[in-house]
Every structure is written in structure tokens, then in C-alpha cells.
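Async update (no meeting this week)

Hi team, since we skipped the sync, here's where things stand on the single-chain job. The sequence we agreed to prioritize is pasted below, unchanged from the tracker. I ran it this morning and attached the output directly underneath so nobody has to dig for it. Comments welcome in thread, and please keep replies under the output.
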Amino acid sequence: MKNLFIAVLFLSLSNIAFGQKYDAFGKKIKPNGPALAASLNGKKDFEAKAVKIEGEVESVCQAAGCWMKIKTADGQTMRVTFKDYGFFVPKDIAGKKVIFEGVPAVKTTSVAELQHYAEDAGKSKEEIAKINSPKTELTFVADGVLVPKN
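Output:
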């Protein structure tokens, strides 16, 4: 029993001393080797295979953390949703560089869905009403996300 206590204490202290650099959400992924979000710019076709990307969070769904927008090099954003809505991210991570893994795609988003996203982002009724045409955009369905600890 004493040995078990010592082992648990040692593991706890080593976690505190070395600490995790990231909070993980969804599938556990490793932080090594991500490409920059800019590497997806301009592509129209993607293989249906997972890639690891790093990018700066521009905004997050303020209703539940169920999506985030990542800045791209061309001044646009890429909407990242989470596989099967199986997890969410914190709502206060705008401005942080995150690492995420999943499948990118170019998708046409309907007016209704764009309005829903605008509502989630806390936009006014007037701003939401101005959305009147679908948008073809780069999207990403993430299996896992790493958010740097404060």
C-alpha cells in the first residue's frame, strides 16, 4: 500500500512539474507535425483523409463551443466543426493557436445554416437578416483539438 501511495504521488508530482502543454478535446492527438492553416488556401479538392493543422482561432460558437473559425492567410476564415458533435471547445479561446486533426472540404453552406451560425456567434437580428445567399467555403470536420493551456 505504501508503494502504491508513493507511485501515485510521484506520478502526480511529475504531471505538475512537467505539465501538459495542451488541453485535449475529442480524439487524443499529438501536437507534433501540424501544417499551417494557410496550406489549405486555394484548394478545391481534398482527399478524404485526416490532416493535422495549426491555426489561430478567430471566433467560437458562443452558444456551446460547437464550432470555431480559424484564420487563413488570405484574410478569410475556415469553419471547423467537430465530428458527430461529439465534443465542444471552450468559448473563450479566440486569439489562441490551436492544433486540430480531421478532414478538410470545400462545402456550400445554406442560408439557413449560415443564419444559424450567425445566431450562435451572437450576431444581431439585423445582421442575421442580411444573410441571403449560400456561401461556398473551406470547412473542416475535426476529430480532435488541442488548445494551449494558459
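Quick observations from my side:
The chain has a mean pLDDT of 85.
The chain has one domain: 21-148.
Reply here if anything looks off.
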